[in-house]
């Protein structure tokens, strides 16, 4: 009964993680409650994952890397490095991948991708190169670069913690470097050589074309006898009945952004947005005169009003909030015209759309306001980088603290968790960031997921589920030998990272794999590291957070990742199966 319950919960978790109808942290906590209530794990075992030192390491890295990002130091260092690449497309791709991979070896790959999306877009425009040729290599480099060190991904840290819990030595800071570097180099060479053949070539469209806005924008001229005269612009019953939203008002030879106090006057020209059939209904109304149905970017950018694309960053407080909740127009002085998510542009009831990391917002506002977004922590203007680092000295001190933590922790003078905790305390102590900001930088959902799934691994052991699955697999494949069985686990891990997070997939498979390694009397560490690396090489779909961040700016389609990522993923699977037994012999 316990085995059936654990397997049932595992299947339920995979379904819920895939659909994302319920937050992953809530799903994880629900699993823990059921496991404790059923007596499969004790209360102390349920909480053990949250009290592990790898949770401290992850939390501290979030704080220190977030502090460096907030100061703008990483932006400046990255852009200076990229400028050395020259103007040859292949050289630019290789150079950007190298820089991204180097950063990603020590920072969260999603953060690194967000860091370089804006500069990469600007660089592509200067070189007259389609962004689609540059952004997918950028995302892949950030993912593969994380395989080089212990702290390159949260998955590595989580697996190291689980191995330590089973009595093995934790993974060293640079223990993964030989295989991780090979994985990264194969990825870099593949992307450079196949860029012209496999990578989609999509020229940048105008912003209105990209968001399919041409058929949905119009200019209404308010006649001298119009019923609109005297109505407040955001409380107009006529405009509300037609579901038209006013973006700007042209009055006295200038465009202005309306506010709740703006009253419609005779001869006003209202720039409105609405669905095509609503605009058609407006044309049939008396005293409604549609001046233009086909507006271009230039029409939306007159009199210092500008269009811009902004990206919701991984550290943005806007994630999981609606435009209405954050009062976006008042907070940023910008009007959101459309939201782009994967292959769809959302234009209806934008105020109620719950934003996600990687969403692209098409915004309109004054040029000065758009320029000021260069220093925003929540939104990245594509093609722009920060003017000047904020608190440059503190930024460099934070970078120095991070480097010292890595070096001291690697040498082993002080435990790694204490090194990174000291670095986090240091950046808060010198006021690079406030303590409140430090807590907001930590991805608590990820920590709950990893801590909870670690306890789920304990439940698989306590209930006999891992032994049950191990015996079944061994009965079928024992004759094939440890290499083939390990390869099967690698493929299974790659498959499970599609519906689940990388760390969760690895922690689910680890108990079974380690049990089989013990039964085969081979080194369980080789199985553990193979599974850990496999969790970071699935590039077949755009579900990885780094891929989601470049999906919109690169104008990619789902098929693009299948075409480009599938051969590379297969290559990396073979590489892992061949190299892991060499460096961690059976």
TrEMBL record:
One of its GO terms (biological process) is potassium ion transport. Pfam families: CitMHS, TrkA_C. Its main location: membrane. It comes from the Bacteria. The keyword Transmembrane applies. InterPro entries: Cit_transptr-like_dom, DASS-Related_Transporters, RCK_C, RCK_C_sf. Residues 204-288, 295-379 form the RCK C-terminal domain. GO terms for molecular function: monoatomic cation transmembrane transporter activity. It is found in: Membrane. Signal peptide: none annotated. GO terms for cellular component: plasma membrane. Keywords: Membrane, Repeat, Transmembrane, Transmembrane helix, Transport. It is a multi-pass membrane protein. The chain crosses the membrane at residues 28-47, 54-73, 93-117, 138-159, 171-193, 414-430, 442-459, 479-496, 503-520, 526-549, 561-584. This is Di-and tricarboxylate transporter. It comes from Catalinimonas alkaloidigena.
């Amino acid at each position: 009964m316990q085995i059936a319950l654990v397997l049932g919960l595992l299947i339920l978790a995979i379904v819920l993680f895939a659909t994302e109808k319920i937050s992953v942290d809530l799903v994880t906590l629900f699993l823990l409650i059921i496991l404790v209530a059923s007596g499969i794990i004790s209360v102390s075992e349920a909480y053990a994952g949250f009290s592990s030192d790898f949770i401290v390491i992850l939390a501290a890295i979030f704080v220190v890397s977030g502090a460096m990002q907030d100061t703008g130091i990483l932006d400046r260092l990255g852009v200076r490095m990229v400028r050395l690449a020259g103007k040859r497309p292949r050289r630019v791709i290789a150079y950007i991948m190298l820089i991204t991979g180097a950063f990603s070896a020590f920072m969260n790959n999603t953060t690194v991708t967000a860091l370089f999306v804006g500069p990469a877009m600007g660089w592509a425009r200067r070189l007259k190169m389609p962004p689609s040729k540059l952004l997918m290599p950028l995302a892949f480099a950030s993912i593969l670069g994380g395989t080089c060190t212990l702290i390159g991904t949260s998955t590595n840290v989580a697996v190291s913690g689980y191995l330590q819990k089973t009595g093995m030595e934790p993974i060293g800071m640079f223990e993964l470097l030989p295989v991780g570097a090979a994985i990264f180099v194969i990825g870099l060479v593949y992307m450079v050589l196949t860029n012209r053949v496999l990578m989609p070539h999509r020229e940048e469209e105008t912003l209105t074309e990209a968001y399919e806005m041409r058929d949905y924008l119009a200019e209404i001229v308010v006649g001298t006898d119009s019923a609109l005269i005297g109505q407040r612009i955001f409380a107009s019953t006529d405009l509300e009945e037609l579901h038209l939203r006013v973006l700007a008002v042209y009055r006295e030879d200038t465009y202005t952004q309306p506010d709740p106090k703006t009253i419609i006057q005779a001869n006003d020209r209202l720039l409105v947005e609405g669905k095509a059939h609503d605009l058609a209904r407006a044309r049939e109304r008396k005293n409604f005169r549609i001046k233009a149905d086909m507006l271009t970017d230039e029409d939306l950018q007159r009199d210092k009003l500008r269009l811009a694309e902004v990206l919701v960053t991984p550290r943005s407080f806007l994630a999981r909030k609606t435009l209405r909740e954050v009062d976006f127009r008042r907070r940023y002085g910008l009007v959101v015209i459309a939201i782009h998510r994967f292959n769809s542009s959302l234009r209806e009831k934008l105020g109620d759309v719950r934003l996600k990391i990687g969403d692209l917002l098409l915004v309109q506002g004054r040029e000065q306001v758009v320029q000021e977004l260069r220093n925003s922590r929540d939104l990245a203007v594509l093609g722009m980088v920060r003017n000047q680092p904020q608190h440059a000295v503190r930024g460099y001190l934070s970078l120095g603290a991070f480097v010292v933590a890595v070096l001291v922790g690697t040498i082993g003078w002080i435990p790694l968790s204490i090194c990174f905790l000291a670095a986090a305390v240091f950046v808060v102590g010198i006021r690079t960031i406030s303590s409140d900001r430090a807590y907001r930088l930590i991805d608590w959902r990820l920590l709950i997921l990893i801590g909870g799934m670690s306890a789920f691994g304990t439940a698989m052991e306590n209930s006999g589920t891992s032994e049950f699955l191990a015996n079944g697999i061994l009965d079928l494949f024992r004759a094939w030998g440890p290499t083939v069985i390990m390869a099967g686990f690698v493929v299974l891990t790659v498959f499970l990272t599609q519906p689940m997070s990388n760390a969760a997939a690895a922690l689910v498979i680890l108990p079974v794999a380690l049990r089989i390694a013990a039964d085969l009397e081979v080194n369980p560490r080789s199985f553990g590291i193979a599974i850990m690396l496999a969790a970071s090489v699935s590039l077949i779909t755009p579900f990885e957070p780094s891929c989601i961040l470049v999906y919109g700016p690169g104008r990619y389609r789902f098929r693009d990742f299948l075409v480009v990522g599938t051969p590379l993923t297969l290559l990396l699977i073979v590489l892992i199966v061949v190299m892991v037994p060499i460096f961690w012999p059976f």
